[in-house]
Structures are given as C-alpha cells and as structure tokens.
# Entry
Amino acid sequence: MSRIIGIDLGTTNSLVAFLGDDGPLVVPDPETGARLLPSAVAFLPSGEVVVGERARELVVERPLDTILSVKRFMGLGIEHVTPEDRRRYRFVEGREGAVRFAVDGREVTPPEVSSYILRELKRWAETALGEAVTQAVITVPAYFNDSQRQATKDAGRLAGLEVLRLVNEPTAAALAYGLDQGAEGVIAVYDLGGGTFDVSILKLRGGVFEVLATNGDTRLGGDDMDERLAALLLAGLPADLGSRPDVRARARAAAERAKRVLSDAPRAEVALALPGHEPVRRTVTCAEFEALIEEIVRRTAAPCRRALKDAGLEPRDVREVVAVGGATRVPLVRREMQAIFHRPPLVDLNPDEVVALGAGIQAGILGGSRRDMLLLDVVPLSLGIETMGGVFTRLVDRNTTIPVSVKETFTTAVDNQTAVDVHVLQGERELATDNRSLARFKIPIDPLPAGVPRLEVTFLVDANGILSVTASDLRTGRERSVEVKPSYGLTDEEIERMLEESFDHAEDDVLQRQVREARVGADMILHATREQLAREATVLQPDEGERIRAALRSLETLRDGQDYLAIRDAIEALSQASEPFARRIMDRSLNEALAQRRLEEL
Amino acid sequence: MRTTETGERQCWGCRAEVETLVCARCQAIQPLSGEPDLFAVLGLPRRLMIDPADLERRYHETSRVVHPDRFQTASPRERELSLDASAAVNRAYRTLRDPIALGRYWLALHGVSLGERHQGVPPALAAQVFEIQEELEALRAARNEDADSLRREVGERREDVAARLARLRAELVGLYDANGGPVLEDLRQRLAEIAYLRTLLGDIDETLEKGAQ
# Structure
C-alpha cells in the first residue's frame, strides 16, 4: 500500500507531510526547497493555471484572476460574500446560490481552486517519496461546519486524492506537540491562522488525545490585520487610486511584510510603489500597528472562554498553551494568549509547520504505523432539525465526541399531512433561520390525524465530523436517508464533470466549456421543471402550464446545439416562466416544515 | 458478570463465545442489538457507583480497539461495526461520567419517565423561581440607568442557583455511592429539580448576555 500523506490546506500557505521512521517530516518543493506553498492560484489568459509563489507574485499584475485565501470561501453561499470580498474578486452565483469566482473568462468554484493547491502538494510528495500518492489526510479549522468540511473533501477528490480523514487543525497541532514533548494533562491550542481562528482544549493521556471542547471564528485571522494596515497605507491617496484592485493588492502585500517586521522590531519602514503616482513612504510603529489590530486580537478571547466553560475547566487547569498559526508571532497576540490563560504560550514548535506535522502523524495512525496513539475529536457546532414554529431542535450538542449517533422521534401537527419536510441545520441559535441550513429533504407519510404518525430521525456524525441523516416512518417502515449534501456543495455529477474537465483542460477550448456548462445548467432546470410539472400539476394556474411547457420544449431543442448563448437565454426564459409556479410549491413545503412538532411536547 | 444484551453469543468472526463488545480471541467487533446496555458496552455491571478513573481507563481502552481509525483498511462490514461500536462507546462514556445523565439513564432503564416538559415547577423551588422570573422580566424591560443595579441583583441570584445546582449534583453522587442506591421516586424528584434549575440558569445567562451587548 502506498503511503498516506498529511496536508495542511491553509488560508495563506499550505504544506504536505508524512510520517517517516523517525517521526513526521514536512516535504519541500522539489525544485526550490521551499516548505510552504503559498495558497495562491492564478488563472492566465492562455488557460494555464499557476499555483504557489509565482501565483502570489502575479496578484499585483492580475489581482482579479489570482485567488488568494480561497479557504475563506469554502462551502459558502453567495449571501456570505462581504462587500470587502467583492472589491477583491468577481463573483458569480452558482447553482443554489453557491459561490463561484469569475476568472479570465471562466467560472471556478472554491473547491476547484483548492484542488490546484492540493495537486501541487501531491506532486511534491510523489517526487519526494518516488511513488504515486492517492490517499490523504487533510486538516480543516475545528470550527468548520458541515458544508465547509464537505467542500474540503470535494477539493481532495478533484485533485485525485481519496480523503481518508479530515482532521481538525488544533487537534493535529496537539498530536505533533504531544508526540514531540511526550506531555500529559490538559492543554489548550490557540490557532490563529491567515483567515481562521480556532481554540481547542484537549486532555492528553497515555497516547489518547481527547478533545474536551473547541470553539472559534472561521472568519478571523492574520489577513484581517493586513487588511487594516493596508487601509492605513492607502488612507491619504485619491479614492480612485486607492480602490483599484491592483493597488490594494500591493498595499496588502506591503502590509503583510510590515507585520512580519513588527513581530521583532519596534518600527517598520514601508515603501509602497504605485502606478503613475508617488510611492507611499511611511514608518509604522508597533504601537500604531497594535492600535489597529487590537479589536481583532480581542475577538479571540470570547471563543477561548467559551471553550473552557464547555470543557468545565478554569484557566488554571490548563498546563500548557500551544501557539499555532503564523499570526501568533505577533507580540500582541502572545500577550493576549497570556492574559486569557494566565501563562506564557509555548512557542517551541514552528507555528507554520505544526499542523502539517500533525496531519502527517494522523496519516501514519490511519496507515497502522502508530497504534499507540488515538485521537478522540468532537463536533464543533450543534446539529439538529427545524420543528414547529421555526424552532431549532438540537439532536447533537456541540463538543460531543465523534463518532456519534442519536435518534429522536417526531410527529406531525397538522391532520392528514402527506409528507414531512426534514430541514437539517447546524449552529447554536434558538431559531432555525439563525442557523446554517445544511440540507432539506421530504419523507412521505400516510395521511393521519395530527400527532399520530411516528417519524424517527437518526443523526450519524462520522469520524470526519460529517453528518448523515436518516428518517423513517415507524408505522410503515418507509425510510429515507441522505448523506447530507450541503446546500452550497457540489453534486457527485458536478465533481465527475470537473474531474473530466481537469484532465483534458489543456486542449479544451473556451467555447466547448461554455457549451458544456450551459448544457449542465439546462439539464438541471429541465429536470427540476419536468418533475414539478409531473408532481405538482394541481398548483398550476390556467395557461401557466402551457407557457412553461413551451419554454421547456424550446430549451430542449437548443440544448443539443453549440450556441451556448442561446441555451443560456432559453434557461432564463424557462426560469422566468416557471418562477411563480416554483414559488408556490416552495411556500407550501415551508408550511409543512413548520407543522412538525417534537413528540414530547404533546 | 451479569447477562446483558451483548452477552452469551457467538463471535461472527471466530465462533468463540463472546460476552463483550469485542471478541477476546480474534478482536472482531460484535454487532450491537437495538439499544445496547451502556454499562455493558464499557464492561461494567449495572450499578450507579462508578469510579471515574476506572471509567476513563475503560473508555480509552475500548476506544483504542473499536475506533474507526483502526479500521481504515478493513472491509466495509468491519468499518460499519467500528462506527456503530465507537458511537455506542462514546454515548456510554458521555452518559456514565455525568451523574445527571447517569441518573436519567437509570430512570429510563427502570421505566420511569422524568416528565421534564410541561410539568409544574418543583414545589421546593416555587418561591425562588417566581422571584427570579420577576427580576429577569424587570431587567429585560429596564432602561440603562436602572439596568446596572438590576444586573447585579440577577448576578447574585445566578450564583445562588449555580450553588444549589452544584449541591444537588454532589448529593446525587453521594446517593449513588450509598449502600443500596437511591429510591427511584427520590431520584426522579431530584433530577426534575436539577433539570428545572438548569433551564433557569440558561434563562438567566441569556438575559444577562443580551443586556451586555
């Protein structure tokens, strides 16, 4: 069996490691010897895709076609994109509101962008090991939700890797720390990366690494510090110059360099070259920088306190605080860690590499070479379903050790319901709408008076923290199970298509891709509309059916042609014709969802 | 050892007789029947008196054997057994280590329902609960200048409730360790009171947090 690799797919940098005979090793770039691969992907007009250091340099020249920090967009919907993000990239809305980047005449999903990074790391590992690599462990922020985890798995598949396990980053760091120091007792891992913040409290004992609690913020990191410092550098410039994407990219790069300097020195000299304008020269003092980032750093305190509380511990119970992530080099961050946990952080391990080393160790554990070690991890966010009144009913509480399986029985609140809508959610808020929607599916039931049906819902969270849901009608034994496909995720067909595309991408011309994408879009709406027409004919208004069918036929004819613009127009026409009809169906199913009630509440 | 739901069967792997979750001879994980006995899952007798250190040791030992990490290259059937067993072991540990969860499970095993929802306030708490609810109501409606003193009062109340909860919890452990164990009805009443106090504490924290924003 070939070796399993461990990958730290970071916001700013990514690394690959494996477990050697004497411990975990980071694999360097075979050409340059660099150990960090910048998580940058640039899409060139020639169709070429550039990854890593070269891509990062291209950002100044091609800011809109070079994606940095793609991890921030994994598993998100278009509504999560901030105005600040929009100033940085061009976004388009994919299927069901998924985020896509428009880069140089094509559209790419965040998992696709990430897959280029993974493919490069796979190449590094294959060169170093001298054999093909097909299996990997990939790390994710502990606070990643189900959609973000699924998106990471998809990225692995797109890169030709079987993702054996997703490991939480702080847990991976704890593995590396524990193996290195042979420590026992309770430790806290404070992981402030480029774009995400995680804190985990673990108990280490006899080779068992038990996570007691985890918390965090998936949109908080060193990038935010760069962004604020960049804004300071651009403050005096004319607005039209300061808002140009290339100028902003330059400013962020200069800010990032200044941040590094300020980790060791009291001041940093910044020289920012600008196109057609005097360069900005400025001294940034440590005090100035700290005033800028103070609010960001303070935001890490609340997750730490919540994690301690969930673990049932006080700061004094923590024996060691491990610093992970490049941003923990910032002195103010270290002081904050000390203030929260009442002890200086442990900084012996390289904060850039410790997660990758842990991923390498977990790869070794799965491969059977470290039977003495075992990781017991937790679900970061509560999981449940929507019940009557739009209430979020929890089935799995946050910080429950995985794998976990939970069953609960529900019933109906309306007489003669013929189906129940199961709406799966993740989060900590009381109202369903305030939490993250993961999936929605229907289970048909026999029409009976309210309160009589018995619907058993089972949640199973595997060792990757990924959820599957089963619902069965206990009276009929009719069962419906779903591997929860996140609302913004990729379908299996989409992944297959992208895989095919990635193989023949070099010869593929833009026209063919446009045609193929248009056809996929056409097939989706054709399928959905046909189904709705067949099932929900009673909801149609007079004439409406004929209008929809006409648009449907027109799209069917155009679909097989080469004119992708005509296909798109026909999609739009069908979408408009069927929109009121689709909305009525949706409204009705919402009413059915609200009608559920928890059994014990009767 | 008592006869339990996992007891007295043949191992599917080597046909040896097995009483535990994992076959002692060939290490194969045994399928679980419907609702496994959570004591048996960790090899414990059905008893409320549990030594925490022993419980943790058993949890770690069993996890080492059944965890999915150990079955990455095994057959799909073994992987499924590992997932089920591991989930059951986690549930057992989660339940048995917490005196409140353990008490509830004990009641369920004996067919007693806690009746937590839509039951009145436990009589022992009525007066205290009424006062706290009034104070919370006042705090939610308070203007800035009044809020601070109300907030302090509620904060003190919170400490009272938390202390009472801690005391009840400690009493529970004492009850489990005593000879003969608790009378079911006594246990039910205590657990109902605890459940009520927990909800109350949640309400207090929520109100305090909202005000702090």
Remarks:
- The first helix of chain B runs from residue 38 to 41.
